[in-house]
Design a protein that fits this description.
heterodimer; A: 219 residues; mainly alpha; MetI-like fold; 0% strand; B: 222 residues; membrane (chain B); MetI-like_sf (chain B); cell membrane (chain B); transmembrane helix (chain B); transmembrane (chain B)
Chain lengths: 219, 222
């Protein structure tokens, strides 16, 4: 048996693995931002089919576990003829997941804009694209910042599930170190602490922006 | 070209149903116990004892800013170092309760804050005991206000519970893992399980809106 003690080196290896958690979160957030905007726009569109498709997409992704979404993309890639790659599977699954959640959050923000704004824009002769671009989205984006940062925390935590399909990020690195040192208390305590350091400032920021925003909008 | 083969999934469907039952039991037990934890913590947060408030705040922040998977690893693998050894199923329940408790406390606290001070003062003026004020004047309307948030948090809990398969509890996702490694029909197994989760979350939201209609039928007076 080769059990090494949990020391400074092991601590550093775990902390360094956070870069993969951050990278995966960044990719999923960027991809989810693009996807989420499309979903949100489809969800409030005047046409029926985009609206129905977007609603179905959101329902499915919000009504099933993220872990199953990861498994389906992971094994689905094989069926589509791609080589199984945990990196790509995790990035794709988390992007789809983030698209659904951001789409739903942003739909709420778009619908929070008073209908008079939309009617005024229509009265001025602005069609859907210009109406969204110049009137609705600039106002909705102000409301959207706080819940979006809040979702980012959820997404960072969600990347931990990529460990289960074998992508070596923070949690998986913790499991590997735990198998070598067998000090789960220290290992998972450290892993949790690193997540906390990543997520807590964002949570505080989201809360502060929420308070600031609700103060500026209450009369 | 890949040919789908759902036969092994259908052959093992009874095992999946048992797994789904465990998922439902686990989630419901976690919700009931977690709700009690939430109410106690939310009441504790209104306490005048500052250290109690700090402990509850620390609990909420730690749970809400770390992943559930790490929490369950810590409880299942880490706690035995302190002499607390739990079976996979009990560790799963404890982890779900601890997790739901943190989110539930925040939701219930928001409900309590929505109660106007005058209501509580009116209760005091009527000579109601502190416990009665908390129960009838604060909790009852507060729960009604936050009911939608609580139910969506519950459905989220039910979906999150799939993660307990990582410590091989007996839930639906774990039943799927077993069936997958026995049949190698990975995609077929997981698409069926995903559909089962979807059916459960749709079912639960239907049940919750029925409960809402029955339990909160009394009129809202302002």
């Amino acid at each position: 048996m080769l059990i090494r003690p949990f020391g400074w080196n092991e601590f550093l290896i775990i902390v360094m693995a956070a870069q993969w958690t951050i990278a995966l979160s960044a990719i999923a957030f960027a991809g989810g931002g693009v996807g989420g905007l499309l979903i949100a726009l489809a969800r409030v569109s005047d046409a029926r089919w985009p609206r129905l498709l977007a609603t179905g997409f959101i329902r499915i992704f919000q009504g099933t576990p993220l872990l199953m979404q990861l498994f389906l993309v992971f094994f689905g890639m094989n069926i589509l003829g791609f080589a199984i790659n945990p990196w790509i599977a995790a990035a794709v699954a988390l992007t789809l997941h983030a698209s659904a959640f951001l789409g739903e959050i942003w739909r709420g923000c778009i619908e929070a804009i008073p209908p008079g704004q939309r009617e005024a824009a229509t009265a001025l002769g602005l069609r859907y694209v210009n109406r969204m671009r110049y009137i609705i989205l600039p106002q909705a984006s102000r409301i959207a910042v706080a819940p979006t940062v809040g979702f980012l925390v959820q997404l960072i935590k969600g990347t931990s599930l990529a460990a289960i399909i074998g992508f070596t990020e923070l949690t998986r690195q913790g499991q590997i170190i735990n198998n070598a040192t067998f000090s789960p208390f220290m290992v998972f305590g450290t892993v949790a602490a690193v997540y906390f350091v990543l997520c807590w400032p964002l949570s505080l920021l989201a809360r502060r922006m929420e308070v600031k925003f609700s103060r500026s909008t209450t009369r | 070209m890949y040919t789908f083969n759902f036969e092994p999934v259908l052959a093992g469907f009874d095992k999946l149903l048992i797994g789904a039952l465990v998922t439902v039991q686990l989630s419901c037990a976690a919700m009931v116990i977690g709700l009690i934890v939430s109410i106690l913590c939310a009441a504790g947060k209104t306490s005048r004892v500052a250290p109690l408030r700090w402990v509850i705040d620390a609990y909420i922040e730690i749970i809400r800013n770390t992943p559930f998977l790490v929490q369950i690893f810590f409880i299942f693998f880490g706690l035995p170092a302190l002499g607390i050894r739990l079976s996979p199923n009990s560790a799963a329940l404890v982890a779900l309760v601890v997790n739901f408790g943190a989110y539930g406390t925040e939701i219930i606290r928001a409900g309590i804050e929505s109660i106007q001070k005058g209501q509580i003062e009116a209760g005091t003026a009527l000579g109601l005991s502190k416990l009665k004020i908390f129960r009838y004047i604060i909790m009852k309307p507060a729960l009604r206000t936050v009911y939608p948030a609580l139910t969506s948090q519950f459905i989220y809990l039910m979906l999150t519970s799939s993660v307990v398969s990582a410590i091989s509890a007996d839930d639906l996702a774990a039943a799927g893992n077993d069936l997958q490694s026995a049949t190698f029909a990975s995609f077929e197994v997981y698409i069926v399980i995903t559909a089962m989760y979807l059916v459960m979350s749709i079912g639960f939201s239907a049940v919750f809106s029925m409960i809402e209609k029955v339990a909160f039928r009394y009129p809202l007076s302002r």
